[in-house]
Design a protein that fits this description.
Helix content is 35%, strand content 27%. It contains four helices and five strands. It is elongated. The two termini are 22 Å apart. Strands 1-2-3-5-4 form a five-stranded antiparallel sheet, covered by helices on one side. GO terms for molecular function: protein serine/threonine kinase activity. Residues 10-114 form the Histidine kinase/HSP90-like ATPase domain. Keywords: Kinase, Serine/threonine-protein kinase, Transferase. This is Serine/threonine-protein kinase RsbW.
Length: 154
C-alpha cells in the first residue's frame, strides 16, 4: 500500500489547519494510531507555520505526504529565499517562538533541512507508523506483501 498526497498551498496561516486535517483524515482511515497521528500533525504544523512566518518571498508552498508500508514521509518546500544565515539559532528555554525545528527534530524518526539560498527551503520528516489493532492500513500491507490480487472484478 502506498498513499501520496501532494498539495500546493497559499502562504497563509489558514492553510495550516487545512493540510493538517487532510493528512489526519487519511491517516485515520488507514488506522494509524492516534498518538502517531498527533505527532505527525504537530510536525507538519510546525513545518508549515515556519513557511508562513519566514518564507516572505514565496506566495505558495508545497506539501507532500507519502505513506508507504509503515513509514510516513513529509516534505514541506517553499521558494522563499532560504535561510540567509545557515545556522539556526537555538531557542531559549522558555521562549514562545523559535522552537519549531527542535519540536520537529524531537518527534521525527529522521529529519533533514535542505537550504537553497535565494531559492528556498525544504524540510524532510520521517515517522515510523504504528497501527491500531486490525487497522485497514495494516491489513492492506499484509495483502500487498502476500501478492493479493487487488483489482476489481466485474
Amino acid at each position: 500500500m502506498e498513499v501520496i498526497i501532494t498539495v500546493r498551498l497559499p502562504r497563509d496561516a489558514a492553510s495550516v489547519p487545512v493540510i493538517r486535517g487532510i493528512l489526519n483524515a487519511a491517516l485515520r482511515v488507514i488506522g494509524v494510531a492516534p498518538q502517531v497521528r498527533d505527532d505527525i500533525q504537530l510536525m507538519l504544523a510546525e513545518a508549515c507555520t515556519n513557511v508562513v512566518l519566514h518564507a516572505r518571498a514565496a506566495d505558495e508552498y508545497d506539501v507532500t505526504a507519502r505513506v508507504c508500508e509503515d513509514l510516513c514521509v513529509l516534505k514541506v518546500t517553499d521558494q522563499g529565499g532560504g535561510l540567509i544565515d545557515e545556522s539556526v539559532p537555538a531557542a531559549a528555554g522558555l521562549a514562545e517562538t523559535g522552537r519549531g525545528l527542535k519540536i520537529m527534530e524531537d518527534l521525527a524518526d529522521a529529519m533533514l533541512v535542505a537550504n537553497f539560498p535565494e531559492r528556498g527551503l525544504s524540510v524532510h520528516l520521517e515517522k515510523v507508523l504504528q497501527f491500531a489493532p486490525d487497522a485497514l492500513g495494516e491489513r492492506l500491507q499484509v495483502a500487498s506483501a502476500n501478492g493479493a490480487n487487488t483489482h476489481l472484478r466485474r
